[in-house]
Write a structure and sequence with these properties.
The structure is a single chain. The chain contains 21 helices and no strands. It is mostly helical. The longest helix has about 30 residues. The protein starts with a helix and ends in a 12-residue tail after the last helix. Helices cover about 80% and strands about 0% of the residues. Among the domains are: about 80 residues, Serine Threonine Protein Phosphatase 5, Tetratricopeptide repeat (Alpha Horseshoe), CATH 1.25.40.10; about 110 residues, Serine Threonine Protein Phosphatase 5, Tetratricopeptide repeat (Alpha Horseshoe).
Length: about 400
């Protein structure tokens, strides 16, 4: 064999051996340097959250099926306020070990912290089912239902939570609001009155108590509560609007005008105050004062059905047919089940000479009235609620 070839043959094995040795050394060094769960926990206890997160990620990287490590990673991420990442870690942990203690509660809390109230409900429900005595799970579930606008469910969970924590005013306020939006007016009234006992000068509590009383049909008492709120905070436009609305509802139009004008003086762009004030002028056959207010209300807020309906009626009388048509059609779209917009559209088509279109609208009016009559019969024929059980709202 030539010398050059002999040298090359001897050199190659030495290089290969060196590579293997270096690889083994690097592997051994990595094993030595890789953090353990105990070290990750120690870092977390020292408040070194970024380092703790990296340590747990390293542990998970070595064993992606370690559900406990994934759950611990989620806890650290939550403490860092990385709630989206924490939720992802918790979900991975639950996929591997569905009954891992505490993880459903932590996942629900991470979703709640992100304002993802609907997403928090399922894990919090699971957490409460696993531990029915958990006040934290019950309260968070109630608050999540409130945030998701599931008010009747919120009442169910918040009532026992509030009962066990009578000094938590904020919790009682959320419960009261839930009762109000769920149309459980007696419940709302009890809660707001308890709040007023502790803070009798709260304009918000007076207003909300008034709303609950109005829901119970006690309009005079509701007016008294709004009057108390107005004395406490005379510069609150919503107080004056609420009081004006109650006067409007009870056909005390002079008082209503005074309060609605006060609301507009304080807040010129109060759309609802403009709409109800315009409606009063419309009812009093004063279209010149009504129409500018109704236009303003609809420009500020596109879902004020009454304002569109009144405006359409006025414009129809003034023979501004295209604009009247647009207003009435908008009112009809906001609530197709109401007959009044269809009736006014029928009258408008008649005025325009379109008999066929008018007839279609009047047929719709008759159908809606018939449907309403059937609904009343069904309700009156239904069995009454059992004693002690509130009627379904």
């Amino acid at each position: 064999m030539p010398r050059a070839l002999r040298i090359k043959a001897c050199f190659v094995p030495k290089v290969a051996t060196a590579v293997v040795v270096l690889a083994l050394a690097a592997c051994a060094l990595a094993q030595v340097q890789a953090p353990t769960p105990a070290e990750a926990i120690a870092l977390e206890q020292q408040g070194k959250l970024a380092e703790a997160e990296q340590a747990w990620q390293s542990v998970v990287l070595r064993n992606p099926r370690d559900a406990n490590a994934l759950a611990s990673l989620g806890v650290v991420q939550s403490r860092e306020q990385k709630y989206s990442a924490a939720a992802a870690s918790y979900r991975k942990a639950l996929a591997l070990k569905p009954k891992l203690p505490g993880v459903q509660l932590n996942l629900g809390l991470a979703e709640f912290k992100q304002g993802r109230f609907g997403g928090a409900i399922a894990p919090l429900s699971a957490a409460l089912a696993a531990d029915p005595g958990s006040a934290q799970a019950r309260t968070l579930l109630g608050l999540s239902c409130y945030g998701a606008k599931r008010f009747a469910d919120a009442v169910k969970y918040l009532q026992p939570a509030a009962k066990s924590d009578p000094g938590n005013i904020e919790l009682h306020q959320v419960l009261a609001q839930s009762c109000l939006w769920a149309k459980k007016y007696s419940c709302a009234l009890d809660e707001f009155q308890n709040i007023l006992q502790q803070n009798p000068d709260s304009p918000a509590a007076h207003m909300l108590t008034g709303e609950a009383l109005d829901g119970l049909g006690r309009t005079a008492d509701a007016i008294a509560e709004f009057q108390a709120a107005a004395k406490t905070d005379p510069r609150d436009a919503n107080v004056h609007f609420g009081l004006g609305y109650l006067y409007w509802e009870s056909h005390q139009y002079d008082d209503a005008v005074r309060e609605l004008q006060s609301a507009l003086e304080i807040e010129p762009n109060h759309a609802q105050a403009a709409a109800y004030l315009g409606d009063i002028h419309f009812k009093r056959n004063d279209p010149d004062r009504a129409l500018p207010l109704l236009r303003k209300a609809t420009q500020l807020k596109g879902d004020l059905r009454m304002a569109y309906l009144d405006m359409g009626a006025i414009l129809s009388e003034q023979k501004h047919y295209p604009e009247a048509m647009a207003a009435l059609q908008h009112a009809e779209k906001l609530d197709p089940a109401e007959a009044d917009a269809h009736f006014r559209l029928g009258r408008l088509y008649q005025a325009m000479g379109d008999t066929a279109a008018a007839q279609k609208e009047f047929v719709k009016v008759r159908e809606l009235h018939q449907k309403a009559d059937e609904s009343i019969v069904q309700k009156m024929s239904a069995a009454p609620p059992a004693l002690g059980t509130p009627a379904h709202p």
